[in-house]
């Protein structure tokens, strides 16, 4: 599957020194998920997924509860889900997912981030075809063989299972996300190290040192934007 997922998450966590930024992003996406359906995760699969993901980032319970309570209220704050595609230095590819209450502001900020860091915005479809939507679920306390066996017994199809550091990482079709989690929960797993629906590049590229420095600055700039939820790319950032 290319790069190691744990390495990606560790690098991201190292950059996310301001945890309040992470919590603010989760507060927004939890609010939207609860507002679009029932505020009960057992009745709202999208909210259930968001909360599972929030756990892997140690989002405090009070942030989660506040967002859900806000969704239950009379607040009519509307957000649009947007996807931008573009190119970084040396033709590297980037996908940006945003959640915004001001489309014009977000588009301008994302475009400026690309332009100021050696990149440029592309049209819809110019990059996404080189990525695969993928469910990524990580657990500890199991080997890859044990994970494969229990998933087969549960009749859950997966793309790949890899042992990465101290975790087993399962890669599956997006519609298998909850099935994979339920199979592990039935086997006694109570916590997940990774719980993501992501876009994985079909092929990673390695940039020369100067281009990589510029690319990492582009990533930092995009991830710092309030409206940006996720940034996906095809660059191998190394160990």
TrEMBL record:
Entry similarity comment: Belongs to the TACO1 family. YeeN subfamily.
PANTHER family linked to this entry: TRANSLATIONAL ACTIVATOR OF CYTOCHROME C OXIDASE 1
InterPro entries for the chain: Integrase-like_N, TACO1_YebC-like_2nd/3rd_dom, TACO1_YebC_N, Transcrip_reg_TACO1-like, Transcrip_reg_TACO1-like_dom3, Transcrip_reg_TACO1_YeeN, YebC-like
Top-rank taxon, per record: Bacteria
Pfam families noted in UniProt: TACO1_YebC_N, Transcrip_reg
One GO molecular-function entry: DNA binding
Span of domain TACO1/YebC-like N-terminal: 3-73
Cellular compartment(s): Cytoplasm
UniProt entry keywords in alphabetical sequence: Cytoplasm, DNA-binding, Transcription, Transcription regulation
Residue stretches making up the TACO1/YebC-like second and third domain: 80-235
Protein name, as recorded: Probable transcriptional regulatory protein JR050_07095
